[in-house]
Amino acid sequence: MHQDFAFIQTAPGRVFVGWGPFDALPFRRPGEAAFFRTDFFLDEVKPWLHPARSEEISIGALAERFGAAGVEVEWTPAPEHEFEVLFRSALAGIERGEFKKIVPAVFESGHFIRTADPWQYFLSRLESLPRGLWAYGWSIGSRSVVGATPEVLFQSHGRGYATMALAGTRPLSRADELFHSSKEMREHRFVVDDIARRLAPFGNVEIGALGLMRLPNIAHLITPIFFMENGAERMTFADMVRRLHPTAALGVSPRSQAGERWLRESDRLTDRRGFGAPFGIERDDHVAIALVGIRNIEWRGDVLRIGSGAGLLAESVLEQEAEELRQKRDQVKALFGLRASVEAYTC
User: What DSSP designation does 178 have?
Assistant: First the structure.
């Protein structure tokens, strides 16, 4: 059994790795690098994880620490009725005027049939990660998560921060349709406006040009955003998290108590835990990055699951949104070499 560890990509092909045991605290100790790990609702009282030791190495070097192995997984189809319940409830909330957009999450489960240590296999898959995806993961106690997210919540750049609006999804072969879909364009604008609104009181917000992020199998609308603070005193890492998370790409627009209540109520059905939550690192030199914890695989023992979320608007169609959810989970399976079906697959 390997020791506890956590890692996050800092540059193409490189990761910052922390090895346990971790010292969990409600704050980051000055002059020390620490990981920030919390749940989606930011309820974790001790989100800062201080490793016993840390290093920055290549993804390949990290994979070599674990050797090589294969996995065999059997999937169970995602329960369609769960998403239908959430879909009907969300559209009812939109009709009542409680919010204009909201993002439920659903999960597909499976179990390992044969594996010595899944990390031996999953880390080797991260060596060939496509451009535009950020590797991250951790194994602490009985819970493990490995992911490759396309979404950066924020990344420090001098006295400023780079962030992004990432919303709107199509299969890669139909990527250009995104520019001609009023639903997808409106959904994306909600995210841009939400980020700008949250940051504007604290500094200058520069919104870049709308573009396409093309990933394996699927594509997203993306708008880069840069934020520069006004005051002499810099916002803390935790302040930036609270200011931005969850963006309208994963939460609700406009932000409201009714929307927060809906997200928490829906969690009783799906138990999203850390799916979509911020995960990041702040180093001793204050260089910081926070990723949005999506496109991941989570497991405990021999049970694993993959989550996906879809933005629901008044014009959303149940079957189309369910298909988008499936496409996102299938992308995760493809990235990690797991067949997108209920049949067992040996790697």
Answer: G
Where would I find the H helices in the chain? 59-64, 80-95, 118-126, 182-199, 237-244, 257-270, 318-335
User: What's the rounded mean pLDDT across residues 287-310?
Assistant: 96
Q: Hunting for tokens 């819970």 — which residue is that? A: 143
pLDDT at residue 53 in the model: 97
341 pLDDT higher than 80:
no
Paired tokens of 178: 């995104």
**Under 8 Å between Cβ of 107 and 78:** yes
Q: Which residues contact 319 (CB under 8 A, 6 or more apart)?
A: none
> Which amino acid type is present at position 234?
R
Measured distance CA(77)–CA(96) in Å, rounded? 32
Which amino acid is it at 146?
V
Q: Are 218 and 327 in contact (CB under 8 A)?
A: yes
The pLDDT, as a whole number, for residue 343 is: 34
> What is residue 67's predicted lDDT score, i.e. its pLDDT?
79
Residues 6+ apart with CB under 8 A from 303: 109, 110, 111, 112
d(CA 338, CA 111): 12
- Mean pLDDT over all residues of the chain? 92
Mean pLDDT of 287-295: 97
Alpha-carbon distance of 106 to 270, in angstroms, equals 6
Q: Return the higher-pLDDT residue of 286 and 343.
A: 286
User: CA 42 to CA 48: how far, in whole Å?
Assistant: 12
| Whole-number pLDDT of residue 115 | 67
CATH superfamily of 5-346: Anthranilate synthase (3.60.120.10)
- Cα 330 off chain centre by: 15
DSSP notation for 42-82: S--S--EEE-SEEEEEEHHHHHHTT-----EEEEE---HHH
Taking residues 102-119, what's their average pLDDT? 89
Task: Name the residue among 328, 269, 340, 279 with its Cα closest to residue 145.
Answer: 279
